[in-house]
Each structure stands twice: as structure tokens, then as C-alpha cells.
Write a structure and sequence with these properties.
Blueprint (H helix, E strand, L loop, with lengths): L2 H13 L5 E3 H8 L6 H13 L3 E6 L2 E6 L1 H14 L11 E7 L4 H13 L3 E4 L2 E4 L6 H8 L2 E7 L12 H24 L4 H17 L18 H28 L2
Antiparallel strand pairs: 1-3, 2-3, 4-6, 4-7, 5-6
Helix pairs in contact: 1-4, 2-9, 5-6, 7-8, 7-9, 8-9
Length: 258
């Protein structure tokens, strides 16, 4: 697990509801049970400051960092998708985005990654499709320096679900279902302190589940097969995350000195 990714997890899943800030020492204590060493934490924090995700502040517990408004928006968007909050209803239409991509390779690659992250797929060259108009679209285009025209399609025949690799996604969900219980038990057994164990188990559970943000476009249920494993996987994740949360919260409070 990379330290930068672990920091996004801890700020999004634990600190967002606690003012989105913490002393560096507290963050180091939180990430120690999941195998992230203090030097790696400090290096990742410095990089996230330079990238505009964190900003330094002075707290009663010492020097600390809080997430920027840009980071808060991304964390809230990711949290809504991780925990399947505010699932939109689908009216049967498709949102099309006709992109004029940047000419420079790096922002062009970032544009593709960002569009994929929020649930669009490339139907043909520079034409992206989603069953929903994603609220993040304007900021994604602005960050990359791209422009786009948009339109709604009332129907496709056949539906453009083939723009996403649903076969690969099915395999990923099947694999997650087969490994999730073992993942939780392994981390619960690795720590003597019950609250620390709950934090570590939940942290790794959420971290692995969060990877589906980059793979699952969040298609409406009506477009998915009746035996879609993502439904069962989402129920299992929610049950385990809820079960582990009280102990994880106590461990976080202890690290923060609360």
C-alpha cells in the first residue's frame, strides 16, 4: 500500500468527520498498524501539500495538516460512491460528451483517467458516454485544459454497456467476495489490541473496496445482469464496515488524544 493512498483513505474515511485535520503525530500513529512507516507518511504529506490536497495548520497537538476544499470535494464524491449514498435514479437517457482533448500528452492522459474515474467510457474516439451527467465534468475539463460539447441520447440500440469491460469487473467482484472474509480475519488476528485490530481490518477492507472506484462506472441496476456479483459484494462490504466501525472509531480517537 502506498503512503499517499493510505493518507487519502485515513482522511476520507476517518478524519473527514473530525474537522478534516489532524496533527502529524496522530496520523503517524493511525497508519502504523497498517504498515506505513513514519518517514513514508511525512514524505507523502509533503507531496500532497505540493499537489494541493493538504495544507499545513497549527493544532493544539502540534503541527498538523488539513485537507483543502479541492480534496474535500474529491473525498466526499468518493465517499458517496464507496458507501453507495445518494444513488441516482436513471431516466433511460445517455449523456454524451464530445471532447476536444488537450494536445499535450500528460493532461490528455489525466483527462482520460478522470473521466473514467467518475464513470464515463469512451464510446468512439473522443466521444464519452455515461447514463448520468456527472457533476464533476466541468472541473475535470478545466483541470486538463480540454473543451467539450454535450448532448443527451434518448435511446441506444443496443445499449452501450459494451463500452465498459463488465466481464473483467464481474471477475473482480467474484474475487473480492472470495477474499473479503479472509482479509478481515487476517488483520483482526494480527493485533492484540481489539480497537487497533478493528481499525486495521476496516482500513484494509475499505482500501480494497475503494479500488472499485476506478473500475466500476456505477451503472444503473436496470443495465446489469440479474446475477451481478457487485450487489452481493456491496452488501457484504457494508455489513463488515459497519461491524468494525465502533472499534476503529475508538482507535482513531485514541490516536487524536480525544
Amino acid at each position: 500500500m502506498q503512503a499517499r493512498s493510505a493518507l487519502f483513505d485515513v482522511y476520507g474515511d476517518h478524519l473527514r468527520a473530525r474537522g478534516s485535520q489532524a496533527p502529524v503525530a496522530a496520523v503517524v500513529r493511525m497508519l502504523d498498524p497498517v504498515g506505513i512507516a513514519a518517514p513514508a507518511v511525512r514524505t507523502a504529506i509533503s507531496r500532497m501539500v505540493m499537489q494541493g490536497w493538504l495544507e499545513p495548520i497549527q493544532l493544539s497537538g502540534g503541527r498538523g495538516y488539513r485537507t483543502t476544499e479541492r480534496a474535500n470535494r474529491r473525498l466526499d464524491e468518493a465517499g458517496d460512491r464507496v458507501y453507495r449514498r445518494h444513488l441516482p435514479s436513471w431516466d433511460g437517457r445517455w449523456h454524451l460528451v464530445f471532447v476536444e482533448p488537450p494536445t499535450v500528452r500528460a493532461p490528455r492522459s489525466r483527462l482520460r483517467a478522470d473521466l473514467t474515474f467518475v464513470g464515463y467510457a469512451e464510446l468512439v474516439d473522443n466521444v464519452w458516454v455515461s447514463p448520468f451527467a456527472r457533476a464533476e465534468l466541468d472541473s475535470i475539463l478545466e483541470r486538463s485544459g480540454a473543451t467539450a460539447r454535450t448532448a443527451w441520447a434518448d435511446r441506444f440500440d443496443p445499449e452501450p454497456t459494451g463500452a465498459w469491460d463488465l466481464s473483467r469487473l464481474r471477475t473482480a467482484y467474484d474475487g473480492w467476495l472470495a477474499s473479503a472474509d479472509g482479509l478481515v480475519v487476517r488483520h483482526l488476528d494480527a493485533h492484540d489490541d481489539e480497537d487497533e485490530a478493528a481499525f486495521a481490518a476496516r482500513f484494509h477492507l475499505v482500501h480494497e473496496w475503494r479500488k472499485f472506484l476506478f473500475a466500476d462506472p456505477g451503472l444503473p441496476d436496470a443495465l446489469l445482469p440479474g446475477d451481478w456479483p457487485g450487489r452481493e459484494a456491496a452488501v457484504l462490504f457494508a455489513e463488515e464496515a459497519t461491524r468494525l466501525k465502533p472499534g476503529a472509531d475508538r482507535f482513531v480517537a485514541r490516536c487524536l488524544g480525544a
